[in-house]
């Protein structure tokens, strides 16, 4: 097996998910990303972290 090339990370992300969104949810996500200068996956990670702090 060949060694992976790239920068090592302190926080690997080995899990992949796929989400289907309706138009309203997509617009909300796009608006959040634009207003906060982030990409969609980072926005989803932030939302998941927020869910964890609600409990």
UniProtKB/TrEMBL annotation:
<feature type="domain" description="Ribbon-helix-helix protein CopG">
    <location>
        <begin position="16"/>
        <end position="53"/>
    </location>
</feature>
<dbReference type="InterPro" id="IPR002145">
    <property type="entry name" value="CopG"/>
</dbReference>
<dbReference type="Pfam" id="PF01402">
    <property type="entry name" value="RHH_1"/>
</dbReference>
<dbReference type="GO" id="GO:0006355">
    <property type="term" value="P:regulation of DNA-templated transcription"/>
</dbReference>
<protein>
    <submittedName>
        <fullName>Ribbon-helix-helix protein, copG family</fullName>
    </submittedName>
</protein>
